[in-house]
Design brief:
hypothetical protein tt1805; five-stranded mixed sheet; 5 strands; alpha+beta; about 110 residues; about 35% strand; globular
Length: about 110
């Protein structure tokens, strides 16, 4: 079992990485300081929200995978989903990243 980076440090690293790549990131919800689950909402030029969540892989890796996409015709549903997730898990961190190439950004995050 590998040591896990505390959630507050990982959240800070995600924000700094986004800023170093010319993007913007903000914490929408702070969870448990050390062991909270981190969800990332990515946007490109403020549109096309996609939710990423870390999932365990068969090889013990923990990479971010897409768990929800915003429907352009019903944006409220995406927001309501995020609200439900936050209500279900007080330890949840929710980070929004607005960046030019969201898929590349997520792919470059360490497992």
């Amino acid at each position: 079992m590998s040591a896990r980076l505390p959630a507050h440090l990982e959240a800070s690293a995600i924000i700094r990485l986004a800023e170093s790549q010319g993007g913007y990131a903000t914490v929408l919800a702070k969870g448990e300081r050390d062991a909270g689950t981190i969800l990332i909402v990515t946007l490109c030029r403020g549109a096309g929200a996609v939710l990423y969540e870390r999932m365990p892989g068969l090889d013990d890796s923990r990479s971010f995978v897409t768990t929800k996409r915003e429907n352009a015709e019903n944006k409220r549903e995406f927001s309501e989903y995020l609200d439900r997730r936050r209500q279900q898990d007080d330890d949840l961190w929710l980070i929004e990243v607005n960046i030019a190439d969201p898929e590349r950004f997520i792919a470059n995050l360490p497992d």
